[in-house]
Amino acid sequence: MKQMVLFLCPHNAAKSVLAAAYFNQLAQQDGLRFLADSAGTEPEAAVSPAVRTMLAYDGIDVSSYVPRQVTRQDMETSAYIISMECNTEDLGVAPERVIVWSDVPPVSQQPEQARAVIRAHVERLIAELRTSSR
User: Fold this and answer.
1) Helix (DSSP H) and strand (DSSP E) numbers for the chain
2) pLDDT in tens, 55-102
3) What angle, 0 to 180 degrees and rounded to 10, lies between the N-to-C axes of helices 49-57 and 15-30?
């Protein structure tokens, strides 16, 4: 059974979608027993067009993904919770369980820089999981 990695951003339309997509792509390539999902505290109606375009360029299709509200069950069942600008205090999870990536710029203002920062974080996380699962 795969362990869950949960990526959170307020609207679940950009940062968390990018992170989950890149994580799943790299985890699958490495054969890791982890799967990523994403959610938000105030989800938008759709994924950002810029994010869909960026991911399509990398061969990842998120056109059918619909942003969703994070649930208590998501928080309880995830092995890792990674937040990008979400206030997780209201979600009933211990702060020490949440990894905060506070250096990701807004995708709407700096899409390529946001993508690069997220990709670098995801690659480091994958490397850590690869090392710890041996």
Assistant:
1) 4, 4
2) 999 999 999 999 999 999 999 999 999 999 988 777 778 889 999 999
3) 20
Identify the structural domains of the chain with CATH numbers, from first to last: 3-132 (3.40.50.2300)
**Residue 134 reports pLDDT greater than 70:** no
Q: Look-up: residue for tokens 């699958």?
A: 28
Q: Which residues contact 32 (CB under 8 A, 6 or more apart)?
A: 126, 129, 130, 133
> Is pTM beyond 0.90 here?
yes
Residue whose pair of structure tokens reads 């480091």 in the numeric block? 124
- CA 114 to chain CA mean position, Å: 13
For residues 134 and 131, give the distance between their C-alpha atoms in angstroms, rounded to a whole number.
6
